[in-house]
């Protein structure tokens, strides 16, 4: 049975699941009824961060146009442009045992594509979640439902996998940002 997390809660992942190395990070969302005449396209992305909390290069920014990073240990499975249907809207496969030692954290975010020009924000998004699934057994291990705390934000950092004492843990972050993906890219040390 999956552990349901609250915002800010941290949970051990590999220590309580011995032998776990391959996980699937599933991200999902729904859009509320929206009458702005524009399509709603949300995107997931991953920032692979060093001890300073920054990406070392563009190669450490994983998204629909750069689907593989960390020497193949992190793989984005593709862009879902509508978010329709049940289950995960986008997924990222992570081989925890193969992530290079220089990477301390994998931070996951959801952003709204062209949010500014379309006049969209996370106040129009509901049922957002991130879940961690055992990649070998498909068992859901951790789930974090973000709730409805967002209004004007155009990007949300949902959570992070991070190393601690030789083990991997998960931190449910749930922090909203204005400025969309561009803002996150700058915060994590890349030029937009």
Automatic annotation (TrEMBL):
Q: Which residues form the TerD domain?
A: 1-188
User: What's one Pfam family here?
Assistant: TerD
- The superkingdom listed in its UniProt entry is Bacteria
Q: Which residues cross the membrane?
A: none
According to UniProt, the name of this protein is Chemical-damaging agent resistance protein C
What organism, scientifically named, is this protein from?
A: Planococcus antarcticus DSM 14505
Family listed? Belongs to the CAPAB/TerDEXZ family.
Question: InterPro entries attached here?
Answer: Stress/Tellurium_Resist, TerD
């Amino acid at each position: 049975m999956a552990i349901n997390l609250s915002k800010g809660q941290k949970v051990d992942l590999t220590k309580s699941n011995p032998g776990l190395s391959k996980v699937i990070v599933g991200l999902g969302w729904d859009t509320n009824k929206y009458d702005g005449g524009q399509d709603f396209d949300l995107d997931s992305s991953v920032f692979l961060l060093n001890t300073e909390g920054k990406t070392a290069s563009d190669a450490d920014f994983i998204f629909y146009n750069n689907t593989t990073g960390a020497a193949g240990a992190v793989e984005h499975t593709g862009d879902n442009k509508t978010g329709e249907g049940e289950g995960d809207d986008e997924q990222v496969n992570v081989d925890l045992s193969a992530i290079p030692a220089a990477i301390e954290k994998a931070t996951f975010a959801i952003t709204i594509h062209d949010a500014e020009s379309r006049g969209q924000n996370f106040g129009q998004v509901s049922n957002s979640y991130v879940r961690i699934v055992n990649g070998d057994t498909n068992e859901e291990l951790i789930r974090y439902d973000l709730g409805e705390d967002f209004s004007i934000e155009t990007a949300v950092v949902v959570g992070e996998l991070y190393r601690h004492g030789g083990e991997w843990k998960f931190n449910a972050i749930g922090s909203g940002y204005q400025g969309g993906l561009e803002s996150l890219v700058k915060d994590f040390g890349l030029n937009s």
